[in-house]
Every structure is written in C-alpha cells, then in structure tokens.
Design brief:
Elements: H1 8-33, H2 39-43, H3 60-71, H4 79-86, H5 88-115, H6 122-130, H7 132-155, H8 159-170, H9 175-201, H10 227-239, H11 244-252, H12 260-286, H13 300-334, H14 345-368, H15 372-405, H16 412-448
Helix pairs in contact: 3-9, 3-11, 3-12, 4-5, 4-10, 4-12, 5-11, 5-12, 5-15, 6-7, 6-15, 7-13, 7-14, 7-15, 8-13, 8-14, 9-12, 9-13, 10-15, 10-16, 13-14, 15-16
C-alpha cells in the first residue's frame, strides 16, 4: 500500500474534522464544569460572584436546621384538623404519599443544583427547562408563594406587631446571619407543640370543647367530607411539606452544595416522623374539637403557655419567609452587577426596599384572609403543587432528555423514574385545580358564616 498525497478537498475535510474535534472538546469541558464531581464548579461562586459580602457560608448542619425550620412552623399546625376532615386512615395515607413525593423533589433539587451550579432559584431552573417565559412564571409563583407563607405566619401571631418585629431581622443580608436564630426557633416550636400533645394526651379538655359535662370527640377512622372540604384538607397536607421552593436558595448559600442531599434526607426523616406523631396524637385525643392552628387545641392555660413558647418559632417563620422572597427580588434586580456583593448605597437601598415590599404584601394577605385553614389550603393548592411537585418533575425529565440526546442508553430504572415523574405531574395538576376550587369555596363559606373578618384584631389561635 503506497502513500497518497492528500488532495485539497481532503485537506478541507481534515480541517473541518479538526474544528469539530475542538468543538467537541469545548462541549466536554462544559459538561465537566457542571458535573457532579467537578470541585472547580463548586468552589466558584457561580451565583453571587465575588465581593465583600460572602453569601456562601452555611455548613450542612445549619442547612439541615434551616430546612427543618422552613417545613416545621405553620404547616404542622394544620395537620390534626385535616385528619378530622378526611378521617384518620385516609389522612395518614395521603400524608405519607406527599411525604414520599416531596422527599424525592427535595433530593432532586440538590442533584440539579450540582449539575447546574449557576441556578439560584426555581426561576433559573425553569428558564433552563422552558425558556424565559417559563422561568418568569415559576419565578413569580415562587415569590407569591413564599410571601404568602410569610402571611400565614403573621396570621398565627398578631399581624401588625409581628410585621414590625419581622422587618429588622429579615433585613439581615445573608442566611449565615439568620441561621443562628433557626436553632432556638426550632427548639421552641417543638416544645410548644409537644406541650399541646402532652396536654391533650393526659386528659386536658380541648379548648374548643364544652368546658363542663361529658364530651364526645367523634374521632373518625374514615369520614365523608364534601369535595371542597376534602380538597382543602389534601392541599393543607401538601402545604405541610411546602418548604421545598426555599430549599434551592438555601443550597446556593452553602459552602459545599454536595452536602445538601444528606441535609435533605435528615430534614425529611425528622419532619415526617414529627408531623405524624403530632397529627395522630392530637387528633386522637381532641377529635372533632381539634383547632387549626393546632396550638389552639390545648386548654386555656396550656394554650397560652404553648403560644408563649412558639412565638420565637413562628416569628422566625415570618422572618425566613420574608427574607427568602425579598432575596429573590434582590437577585433579580442586582444579579450581574457589582452592587450585589458590595455594600454600596444602591445595594442597601435595593435590599431594604425588597424586604419592605415583601413584608407589606404578606401583611395585606394575612389581613384580608384571616382564616388559617382556608389560607393554607389555598396556598397549598395553587403554589405547593406547582413548586413542590411540578417543577422538580420537569427538572428530572429535562436532565433525562439531555442524557438521551447525548446517546445514553435508557435503563429500566430510568424508564421507571420517567413514568414516576409523569405520574407526579398528573397528580400535582389534579391537586392544583381541585384544591384551588375547594379552598375558594371554603373561604366563601367562611365569609358567609362570618368566620372571617378582614382587617380585624380577632384571635386567630383557634380558628378553623
């Protein structure tokens, strides 16, 4: 076989092949940069950039506490009442169903963050999945949802007083400055809830029950609620796990995002066990006299004591769910500028304004819908399904599609996961539509029965 001098056409093909090789190397470099094992992508401050404000300073243990506290606060207070609406057995089954679904969603947020280090919020994730308008839709849904969670926290205290106390603490710029409040907040609200649990378990008469004479708790294993009542209860159970949208911004402020997954698993294990214990025990001993929020179930004395202990935890919920949506606005306005991570005049004016706008919105919502169960049912139906279930399922399918396009073979486990996530989307869609309908009907009925008076100073501690 002799050597043949390449022709001009062959030289062109060789040059084209060389260019394709360089393109392929560039693409591979990008993949390596955003891969799970890439330490360089984790060391770089992909979201915030560099400056005199260090946002990425939270360790995994503090992250776990923030995750737990973002879950335990308002949602747990509505669980016993949902068991009465649905019946204990259906209530527990639906509760565990949502526990499994949201644990997967929470876990995959960590996976997605490591694969795509530049994402900060669900808006960034959905921009990758659906483009700009999809990102805008999910981004503003996140803001409305987290601000409304803040509103529900204000509703469990005295709205105006809580709003005034929330502003200066929520204005602390980084989660590292707020995380120390998470520990006492978590401890105090757990103590407050356990006071109620122990109080009703040792024979204390529920505060909503007749204070004299025999009472019939009418504790039901199965119940026959109306469609609107059932969907309000289902939405409230989903709302109990609705800290998910805040998980990704928390991961973005971790020193090492790879530790997020173990923080999530610790969080969900504790939260699910605690929720189930509280829900079953309180409903078993309070029955039809269970209050929503649940702290109002205890007798008058224990009710006051439990609320006293819970105030730091409830206030932290208000602080946290003011800080997070405010940070979302702040990032939208200053991301990519030097003002984001440097303490300039623009930095402070924009940040403090974002906190104020968010808090005013929460105050207006909590004053306009002063019925706790109706508010969390509405929030859970519209936003929790969208942000805790829809978004993460779409994110998984987006990553799978990318792997398939790169020629990766689809294994049985991957096919199962695809089917699972499609089912999640269908379930979430049903909860969104039916739950929103049920909650709106519930709010209408509350107003007709004069159970909700907007802009009043009435006691919300035992409202149902």
């Amino acid at each position: 076989m002799g050597f043949r001098k390449p022709s001009f056409g062959a030289h062109k093909h060789a040059k084209a092949a060389d260019l394709k090789s360089h393109d392929r190397e560039d693409r591979e470099a990008i993949v390596v940069h955003s891969s799970i094992g890439s330490q360089s992508s984790l060391d770089k401050n992909e979201v915030f950039g560099d400056g005199d404000v260090n946002y990425r300073s939270v360790g995994w243990a503090s992250t776990a506490v923030l995750l737990v506290k973002s879950q335990i606060g308002v949602g747990v207070l509505g669980i016993p009442a949902t068991f009465h609406s649905l019946g204990l057995i259906p209530g527990i089954l639906i509760f565990l169903f949502f526990a499994v679904l949201t644990t997967w969603s929470d876990y995959y947020l960590g996976v997605f963050k490591i694969k795509h280090p530049s994402v900060y919020s669900l808006q960034d994730c959905m921009t990758l999945v659906f483009g700009r308008w999809g990102g805008e839709f999910f981004g503003w849904s996140y803001w409305f949802f987290t601000a409304m969670v803040g509103a529900s926290a204000l509703l469990t205290i005295f709205v105006a007083v809580a709003a005034i106390a929330t502003y200066p603490v929520a204005s602390l710029r980084t989660l590292d400055k707020i995380k120390w409040l998470g520990w006492p907040a978590l401890i105090t609200i757990v103590i407050a809830i356990m006071i109620v649990v122990i109080g009703v378990a040792v024979g204390g008469r529920p505060s909503l029950a007749p204070q004299e004479g025999p009472i019939d708790l009418q504790m039901r294993l199965f119940n026959s609620p109306s469609f609107s009542e059932a969907m309000t209860a289902v939405s409230s159970l989903l709302f109990a796990f609705s800290g998910t949208p805040a998980f990704l911004p928390i991961a973005s402020e971790m020193r090492d995002s790879r530790d997020f997954k173990k923080a999530v698993l610790l969080c969900q294990t504790f939260v699910t066990s605690f929720y189930l214990t509280v829900g079953v025990v309180v409903y078993y001993y309070a029955g039809q006299y269970v209050a929503s929020p649940a702290l109002g179930t205890a007798g008058p004395l224990l009710k006051r004591i439990s609320y006293g202990f819970s105030l730091p935890g409830l206030l932290f919920t208000s602080v946290f769910y003011t800080h997070m949506p405010a940070k979302f606005l702040f990032m939208r306005l200053l991301r990519g500028t030097r003002h984001l991570t440097n303490s300039t005049k623009t930095h402070w004016v924009v940040w403090l304004s974002c906190v104020l706008v968010t808090l005013l919105f929460s105050y207006i919502v909590s004053s306009a819908i002063p019925v706790f169960s109706s508010l969390i049912g509405l929030v859970g139906a519209i936003f929790a399904s969208l942000l805790c279930l829809h978004a993460e399922a779409f994110m998984y399918l987006f990553d799978v599609r990318a792997r398939v396009r790169q020629g990766e073979r689809t294994s049985f486990s991957t096919k199962f996961a695809i089917v699972y996530n499609v089912v999640v989307i269908l379930v979430a869609s049903f909860v969104l539509v039916a739950g929103a309908y049920g909650s709106v009907i519930s709010i209408r009925d509350d107003y007709r029965a004069n159970g909700g008076r907007p802009w009043s100073c009435a006691d919300n501690s035992g409202s149902v």
